Amino acid sequence: MNSYRLTKLNNGIMVVSENLPYVRSFSLGFWFNTGSTNETASNNGISHFIEHMLFKGTEHRTAKKIADDIESLGGYLNAFTSKEHTCYYGRGLSQHLPKTFEVLADMVQYSVFKERDIKKEAGVIIDELNDIEDSPEELIFDKFESNIYNGASLQYPIIGAAENIENFTSAEIIGYLNKFYSFNNLYIVASGAVEHDMIVDLTNKFLTKNMGLRFKRKIKIKLLSAKDLFVEKDIQQTHVILGKPTYGISNKKRIAVSLLSHIIGEGSSSRLFQALRERNGITYQVNSFLNSFYDVSSFGIYFSTNPKLASKAMNIIYIELQKLLNKPVSAKELKRAKEYIKGSVVMSLESTTNRMLRIAQSVIYFNKIKSVEQTMAEIENVTIDELFELGKTILDPGDFVKTIISSDDRLIKSAS
To answer: Going by DSSP bridges, is the β-strand pair 25-32/86-93 parallel, antiparallel, or unpaired?
Structure first.
């Protein structure tokens, strides 16, 4: 039977664990409750930059030794930055948990930010930024969210702005760390062959540097109006997102939005896949999506196609949306969506890393661990009438903002 435990230490660190007696490995994450939403235009990209820099060496380890200490034990070390969080995590066999913990603790406390390393890593991140610029199917999501979140810090892309990336200094990085990498902004989360008391002991043993406390100020979301956005690029295909902001993780309606999104465009049986690809053969890529944050989510429909067919594709999408506005989904269609999402949740639990991610986000967003059973019940309780009423508030094409990347600048006019 799964065993969840939470301990908030006197210094403010939250330790969360899940013991899985049937596995021999672990996933361990150090989560800081900060990301690009805590940035400004002048330092956009610094959260992601710091994520890179923590692997470049500490007072006790070179960059190579950080990697060697984990990989020589058959383990794995990585990190990611989102708009609301930064996570440094490791995986390995249960007997190597103490070493992995020690390395991660060293990185978050004693990293050194040498100017030559900062300049070198800036080049690496600029290269990453250029990769995104060269990938319209990735770039369009950054452009879409920057547009619909106009007026809020959610508009800032995680990777940041080139001018900022090229000019970050050690002093700026340390200043950001001192503000957001604090004890009461740190969650240590583990899943797998782990013992909670051991993780608490490791925390007390290795997290000894006084990282201080910070006043947690809730960022209020106030969005300004957004307009259609066209980005001209010399590419063969046209890439389009139609969408808008909707309910965030904190709102109970988000589960229903997720089901509605699945019915519209997630999976081969979805309405848009069948209408655009199977019946009309005019696009290879088409899907709806729901990218969620605490207060708000990005809901949209993405597709790519030949520029000559983009307007036709949009018209077909509008027709399918109008059908959902005029008539409730069938019981069979809703059941299929529920089973798909429940299946995805359960199958993801076969990975200790996915379990660790789920637990961390649950604790950070809800200050508790939501059980799988509770999640399943929330999915199952969504009704046909609820979906129909919800659709009226979020599926009106007149409320959608268009983001288009294409070589044909006539598209924005024909799409309006």
So the answer is: antiparallel
Q: What is the pLDDT of residues 59-88, one digit of tens each?
A: 999 999 999 999 999 999 999 999 999 999
Q: Is 51 a catalytic residue?
A: yes
Note whether 138 and 237 are within 8 A (CB): no
Angle formed by the axes of helices 170-180 and 115-133, nearest 10°? 80
CATH topology of domain 229-415: Cytochrome Bc1 Complex; Chain A, domain 1 (3.30.830)
With beta carbons less than 8 A apart as the criterion, state whether 83 and 152 touch. no
- pLDDT tens column, 89-139: 999 999 999 999 999 999 999 999 999 999 999 999 999 999 999 999 999
Q: Which two tokens stand for residue 382?
A: 């969504």
C-alpha 116/C-alpha 105 separation (Å) is: 24
Catalytic residue among 18, 39, 51, 145, which? 51
Instruction: Kindly state the average pLDDT of the residues 170-199.
Output: 96
3-206: which CATH number, 3.30.565.10, 3.50.50.60, 3.30.830.10, 3.40.50.300?
Answer: 3.30.830.10
**Which DSSP state fits 186?**
E
Distance, in Å, from the CA atom of 64 to the CA atom of 340, rounded to the nearest integer, reads 43
Share of the chain above pLDDT 70, in %: 97
Q: What is the DSSP-derived secondary structure letter of residue 217?
A: P
